[in-house]
Amino acid sequence: MNTTDTTRWKKIAENITGFNTDIPRFVASKSTCRYDLIVFSDSSRRVYAAVAYLVCRPLNNKPFSNIIYAKTRIATPEKSTVPRLELQAIVLAAKMTRFLLKELTIRVHSIHWLSDSQIALYWIHSRKHLKTFVQNCVKLIHEVIDELATANINYNSTTEFLLAFRRFISRRGTPSNILSDNAPNFKLGREVLINELRQISEDKSLNMLWDIWHKEYLRTIAKRNQIRLAKRQSSSKQPQIGDIVLIEMDNTGRSQWPLGVAVELNKSSDGATRSVKVKTAKRRILDWSTNQLIPLEVAAAEESSTKINTPTPPTRVQLPRAAKKTILR
């Protein structure tokens, strides 16, 4: 503070009478009790602050509370609004709570943060994307909340788990199926499941339904599938040498399937054609299965032998010069 503010503050402090209080150094209770930490945060246009109270609730006596920590910060009014200062006060309360839980040697059963700013509370509970300053404050508050919520939870790293698993194998051998390292936990569940499965297996109505499903429904589906495959949109004609065929490709659309000419048939010992060597437009000869070839109703030999008769225009007859003169006269 400057000199003027210091002088004014000294006058205010000198005029205050009747406000004398002592804060005890020992704020806990010697008897068994429950401890709650309550943190208040508030702000004005120039200052924001937070104060923490430790509430002790004995089993046989009345509860009492003591102030254990307080902090204030001076704000810059030109750059901060009151809702932002309220949010900064909550951030100060969060940092204060984290510090107190590390320093206190007693077990705190519950923690309460109290603020009267509706806008700051809306920002904390909102899932929308906020401005950078507000978003950073809200992120820090949530980090402290998560840290406090998981303070008493122990996490095993991958290395610790592998070491524990190795000790388990060395004591009991390598199991074929790993369910848990504490098998008695599953004994009761095993007995319950066996009884339930036995009731299901002995149910006559379920067995009858399964027979209908297996003998009638599944066979009907298989038969319909065979009929659908037999009636697929393809030609049943076997390709012959010189036929133009459409090559079926799995990863491309039907409009992109290439054309080719059958140049050689590969037959098996029973005389059936199993594969065909096809010459493509790039003059490459590849071996294709007959299931991937769709013969068209056009043969390359017929195409080459087909002749198109186009009418020839009549020839112009040039008259002799003497005949032209006679016509002109």
From TrEMBL:
Xref: InterPro entries: DUF5641 (IPR040676), Retrotrans_Pao (IPR008042), RNaseH_sf (IPR036397)
Region (Disordered): 304-329
GO molecular function terms listed in the Swiss-Prot or TrEMBL record: nucleic acid binding
Transmembrane annotation, as ranges: none
Superkingdom, taxonomy of origin: Eukaryota
Protein name: DUF5641 domain-containing protein
Domain DUF5641: 205-293
